[in-house]
Amino acid sequence: MSKHYGSIAFTDAVVGVQREYGSDGFYGRKRVQGNAAPGIDALTDDEREYLAERDSFYLSTVSETGWPYVQYRGGPTGFLRVVDDHTIGWADFRGNLQYISTGNVGGDDRVAIIALDYAHQRRLKIFGHARVVTVAEDPALVKSFANPDYSAEVERAVLVTVEAFDWNCQQHITPRFSAAELEPHLAPLRRQLADLQAENARLREGLGSGDPAAR
After folding, report:
1. Rounded to whole angstroms, how far apart are CA atoms 128 and 88?
2. Using an 8 Å Cβ cutoff, are 24 and 18 in contact?
3. Can you give the pTM of this predicted structure?
4. Which residues on adjacent β-strands are paired with residue 70?
5. From which residue to which does the signal peptide run (predicted)?
6. Would the CA dihedral through 187, 188, 191, 192 be positive or negative?
7. How do residues 14-25 score in pLDDT, each as one tens digit?
């Protein structure tokens, strides 16, 4: 947990529940620490490496009605990038044209992100302030987030100034694996199957020809 995460997440209502269940002593110290040193927390190499390996994350924004809105964002591995010690960003690909997250950020720039690594049961939670950058505003910046190997249209870029983050516990994360994560394990099995099929074909051919060596 970064220094200022508790000062954002642990509101009075949250502290009241923590006190009820006995975890206020542990988390209370983290909240006091964050309040005593106002500022934002710098990302470390751990966060940089982790985010560079992600191909998806969940983004939460706040609407003008006060309702939270959670959206899944996906793309090629590495489309979510660490720009500098305090900033992350990604290409905003054309989707269903609802633009709810984009509109929400225009009214309230506060966002929360959760990036999951299902295969290794890890998750990183981030608080930050988002800014949408259009092609008209900064074409070079938007282009820098595009991936030439990914055909989706990049409509804009999103930059998030990170306020705080927390590495959450592994409990209750169901392991799941993408095709890319499974491929190193499946490829040898495919080769083995192909070899066995070829051997079987040779044996069948030998039996059909009456070759004693195939019997």
Report:
1. 9
2. yes
3. 0.82
4. 60
5. none
6. negative
7. 999 999 999 888
- Of 35-44, 151-160, 190-199, minimum mean pLDDT range: 35-44
Token pair for 93:
């690909």
In whole angstroms, what is the distance from residue 159 CA to residue 157 CA?
7
Q: What is the 3 state secondary structure string of the chain?
A: CCCCHHHHHCCHHHHHHHHHHCCHHHHHHHHHHHHHCCCCCCCCHHHHHHHHCCCEEEEEEECCCCCEEEEEEECCCCCEEEEECCEEEEEEECCCCCCHHHHHHHHCCEEEEEEEECCCCEEEEEEEEEEEEECCCCHHHHHHCCCCCCCCCEEEEEEEEEEEEEEECCCCCCCCCCHHHHHHHHHHHHHHHHHHHHHHHHHHHHHHHCCHHHC
Length of the chain: 215
